Each structure stands twice: as structure tokens, then as C-alpha cells.
Amino acid sequence: MTLQSIPAKPLTTGDIANYCHVSSVAVLKWIKAGKLKAYRTPGGHHRISLEEFRAFLEKYRMPIHEEFFHPRAVNLRHRC
């Protein structure tokens, strides 16, 4: 497996809540309403791909900060 074929680390509900300036509960409501696609880990936590999150932002006309989606932004995502 090459470095380019490794998928980006998925986002947590907390990552998305920080980005959107809402609570994690609001993000869970979006997921349960089918507005934001997510999968569950074996422990029951939701994870969202960068692609799905970007599509969500575009669909709902929310601001997109390109630096957040840059491959080197992994550290920025978890510091918010």
C-alpha cells in the first residue's frame, strides 16, 4: 500500500462540531436525520469521511475553509 492510497483519517463528531461552531449533539442530529453520512465504529462512535463532510458543507451552503481539507491539516483538525 502506498502513502497515496491510505485514506485520510476520518472526522469525529467533535471535529465537525468545532468546525461548524455547534454542539456534538447537533452533529448527531444531522447524522440521524440523514443529512450527514457517517459510519459507526465497533465501539459505537460515529466517523465521517472528509469527502462526505465537504459534500455536506456544499449541499447546505456552509463555509468551506480549504486549509481544513488540506492533507497536512490533520493536526489542525484535532486542535480546534
Based on Cα principal axes, name the global outline.
globular
Number of domains: 1
Taking Cα atoms only, what radius of gyration do you get, to the nearest Å? 13 Å
Strand order of the largest sheet: 1-3-2
Structural class: mainly alpha
Q: What composes the largest sheet?
A: 3 strands, antiparallel
**Proportion of residues in β-strands:** 5-15%
How would you characterize the overall build of this protein?
44% of the residues lie in helices and 9% in strands. It has 80 residues and is mostly helical. The protein has a single domain, classed as Orthogonal Bundle (Multidrug-efflux Transporter Regulator, Chain: A, Domain 2), CATH 1.10.1660.10. Strands 1-3-2 form a 3-stranded antiparallel β-sheet. It starts with 10 loop residues before the first strand and ends with a helix.
What descriptive keywords fit this protein?
single chain, 80 residues, mainly alpha, Multidrug-efflux Transporter Regulator, Chain: A, Domain 2, 3-stranded antiparallel beta sheet, 5 helices
Q: How is this structure best summarized?
A:
This protein is mainly α and 80 residues long. 44% of the residues lie in helices and 9% in strands.
Secondary structure layout:
Blueprint lengths: L10 E2 H8 L3 H9 L6 E2 L5 E3 L1 H10 L6 H4 L4 H4 L3
Antiparallel strand pairs: 1-3, 2-3
Helix pairs in contact: 1-2
